[in-house]
Amino acid sequence: MAGKTATTGIVPASGWRKFWSDFSESPTAVGALFVFLVILFIAIFAPIVSPSNPYDLASVDIMNSRLEPGSLDFDGNTFWFGTDGAGRDMLSAIFYGPRVSLGVGALSGLFASIIGAVLALSAPSRVVRP
Fold first, then answer.
1. Is 2 a residue whose pLDDT tops 60?
2. Distance CA 13, CA 3 (A)
3. What per-residue confidence (pLDDT) applies to 59?
4. Ramachandran region of residue 87, left (φ > 0), alpha (ψ -120 to 50) or beta?
5. Which residues contact 13 (CB under 8 A, 6 or more apart)?
6. CB of 67 within 8 A of CB of 60?
7. What's the rounded Cα separation, in Å, for the pair 94 and 52?
8. What is the CA angle 69-74-76, rounded to 5?
9. CA atoms of 18 and 47, how far apart (whole Å)
10. Residues in contact with 11: Cβ distance below 8 Å, sequence separation at least 6, in sequence order
11. Alpha-carbon gap, residue 96 to 121, rounded angstroms
């Protein structure tokens, strides 16, 4: 039978199945993937999961500047990670921050792939014939 090994009779995994099989054997790799997916989820849904929008200057109050972590403002809002000098919530800034970083990383990877593909396709083939 094609593809089966002679001793066990089991078809060896190939492609994505082999990759996932090898990947899932490493607890570190699976943990890193989980952390990455959590960061990606928070970055994508930052407007929904963050307490406030750090870019909305209408909601910033200078009286809330440099509050310690866990402090309450006059309106009763809790700032779990404190505030910066402008009175913006640090937890919200942490939730919104990865959006820029992940976007820059994805775009630079896309541009590098496009440039690499164009260069590879335009390169002359060097076939040596005997």
1. no
2. 10
3. 85
4. left
5. 21
6. no
7. 11
8. 70
9. 38
10. 3, 4
11. 38
Cα separation of 81 and 96, whole Å? 14
DSSP-derived secondary structure letter, 130: -
Token couple for 70: 């866990």
pTM above 0.85, yes or no: no
- How distant, in Å, are the alpha carbons of 23, 59, 67, 82 from that of 86? 44, 11, 10, 11
- Reported residue count of the chain is 130
Residue tagged 């402090």 (tokens): 71
| pLDDT tens per residue, range 99-113 | 999 999 999 999 999
**42-66: pLDDT as tens digits:** 999 999 999 999 989 888 888 999 9
Is the distance from CB of 54 to CB of 88 less than 8 angstroms?
yes
Contact of 86 with 97, CB cutoff 8 Å = no
DSSP, residue by residue, 50-98: SSS-TT-GGG--GGGTTPPTTEE-TTS-EETT-B-TT--BHHHHHHHHH
